[in-house]
Every structure is written in structure tokens, then in C-alpha cells.
Design goal:
The complex is a heterodimer of chains A (152) and B (112).
Chain A: H1 3-6, E1 11-18, H2 24-35, H3 42-63, E2 71-79, E3 83-90, H4 124-131, E4 134-140, E5 143-151
Antiparallel strand pairs in A: 1-2, 2-3, 3-5, 4-5
Helix pairs in contact in A: 2-3, 3-4
Chain B: E1 3-8, E2 11-16, E3 20-21, H1 23-38, E4 43-47, E5 53-54, H2 56-69, E6 74-78, H3 82-90, E7 99-100, H4 103-108
Parallel strand pairs in B: 2-4, 3-5, 4-6, 6-7
Antiparallel strand pairs in B: 1-2
Classes of the chains: A alpha+beta (152), B alpha/beta (112).
Chain lengths: 152, 112
């Protein structure tokens, strides 16, 4: 048997929620469940939950301007011994070029002596960038998708 | 559920009765804290013991409390669970906030 033939096929879970911040917990719990199938530590599992919540929040707040009644889709593509890909998609406003992953911003390290570094918002995607192995964003025919990859 | 507060010694202990301080709770939490500050409560201890998940919006709400207080008072954190501690560590906010292992230690003034 070749290495390729011995690889297990990927498995996909597709979810959709309404664009309400209260509903992100549903996706969060599903991600925790799938991650619990892997060898991830509890800390890594918490971090995966954080990443998916940040990206779903971002879609609700920016793609849909905080309005409920719109669709957000989340796909979990589990490739055993390879990676877990999480795709968050919306049908709202596309992410501005300057905040897309290819124009990544580092997390601002807060300085207790400089109030300008104590930001009350804007950390979410920088956290995702820091924690995931790879991320990318695409917008095609009205569907915007944020892809996150985590090696297993 | 929700938020509550009590006076202990010369401080106001704010208990978060929610398992998640996320984007859906960030604004209610910030408003609750701003109300306390407007009422003159400026020595605040936030009891995080029931919070098992916090996102950047929840963190941002706590930062906005710190900024609202400015040099008029202090906000300290107590009893964070591991995932919450990790968020403060990841964002280097553990260098900004005094984080105590328990409310009792926050009240006695002993840091982490």
C-alpha cells in the first residue's frame, strides 16, 4: 500500500448560523467537538475555539454591519494526520483589502505608559493570524470566505 | 446570570455570572461597569471565576473600563480560568492588568 493510499479521506462538517453574536457559541461548541477528535491539547482546543469565534464575530460585525437575519456558514474539513481547515463564509460586504490576511497586522503590544496602545478593539484577526498555521481570504461572486488551517 | 457587585473592604467586587464574556456580552458588561464608575465606584475587582471563554471583544470591554477610569481609579482582575489567562498572555495584556489568583488575594492586595 502506498503512503497516499493509506491516508484517510477528509471528512467535512457544514454548519450555518444566523448572523447573531449570541449564536457564535453554537459554532464554538461544534469546533470544540471536532478538535476533541484530534490530539490537540486543551490549550490548543481553547485557541481553536477563540479563532473561529473571532472570525465569525468579524463576519457579523463587518460583513453584515451587526445585523441579524443573514447567513453565516462554517465548514470544518478534518483531514486526519494532516490538518483541520475551518472556512467561515458570509454573503455580505467583502473585507477591505487593508485588513485582509495578506496585509496582516501584528498584535499591538500594549505599553502601560502609552494609552494609545491600549486598544479597545481591533485585535481579533491579529490573534487568529498568530494562532493559526495559515490563513487566507477570498471573495468570489458575492461569497466571502475566510480559511484557517491548523496542522495536526 | 448577568453581572452583580458587592462592596468588600474599600473595593467593589464585580461578579460576572456568565460562562462567556464574548462579543454578545461585551457591550452589556462595559455599560454595567461604566454605570458603576459613574456612581463613584473606582476601585474595581472583576471576579472572572465563572468565565470559561473570553474573546477579543470581551477583552476590549475590560480595556475600555481601564481607559474610562484613567488615573481616577483601578480595575484589577481575579480568578481567571486557563483559557482567559491564555488570552491575556497572547495579547500581552497580562502586562497591563494586575491579575490575582483569587478575589480574596485581590482584596488583600497580593498580585499573581
Amino acid at each position: 500500500m502506498t503512503d497516499k493510499a493509506s491516508q484517510q479521506p477528509s471528512q467535512t462538517l457544514t454548519l450555518s448560523i444566523d448572523s447573531r453574536l449570541e449564536d457564535t457559541v453554537l459554532v464554538a461548541m461544534a469546533v470544540r467537538g471536532v478538535c476533541a477528535m484530534t490530539a490537540m491539547s486543551q490549550k490548543e482546543l481553547n485557541r481553536m475555539e477563540l479563532c473561529v469565534v473571532e472570525v465569525v464575530n468579524n463576519a457579523i460585525e463587518h460583513a453584515y454591519q451587526g445585523r441579524s437575519g443573514h447567513r453565516i456558514e462554517v465548514e470544518l474539513i478534518y483531514s486526519p494526520e494532516e490538518n483541520l481547515e475551518i472556512v467561515v463564509s458570509d454573503y455580505g460586504s467583502a473585507m477591505p483589502e487593508e485588513v485582509r490576511p495578506e496585509n496582516k497586522k501584528e498584535l499591538v503590544v500594549p505599553d502601560p505608559h502609552n494609552p494609545d496602545t491600549l486598544l479597545a478593539s481591533g485585535r481579533g484577526l491579529a490573534i487568529v493570524e498568530k494562532l493559526m498555521d495559515h490563513i487566507h481570504y477570498q471573495s468570489h461572486e458575492g461569497r466571502n470566505s475566510f480559511h484557517m488551517f491548523r496542522a495536526l | 446570570m448577568g453581572f452583580s457587585n458587592r462592596q468588600e473592604a474599600d473595593k467593589t467586587v464585580v461578579e460576572i455570572g456568565e460562562a462567556r464574556l464574548d462579543a454578545s456580552q461585551a457591550t452589556p458588561f462595559r455599560d454595567y461597569m461604566f454605570d458603576l464608575i459613574n456612581q463613584g465606584q473606582t476601585q474595581l475587582v472583576v471576579d472572572l471565576s465563572q468565565v470559561n471563554f473570553m474573546d477579543s471583544s470581551g477583552l476590549g470591554a475590560i480595556v475600555s473600563v481601564l481607559k474610562q477610569l484613567g488615573d481616577k481609579g483601578a480595575v484589577e482582575l481575579a480568578s481567571p480560568q486557563k483559557a482567559v489567562n491564555d488570552l491575556f498572555d497572547l495579547t500581552c495584556m497580562d502586562q497591563i492588568f494586575t491579575i490575582h489568583p483569587s478575589v480574596d488575594q485581590a482584596l488583600s492586595g497580593k498580585p499573581h
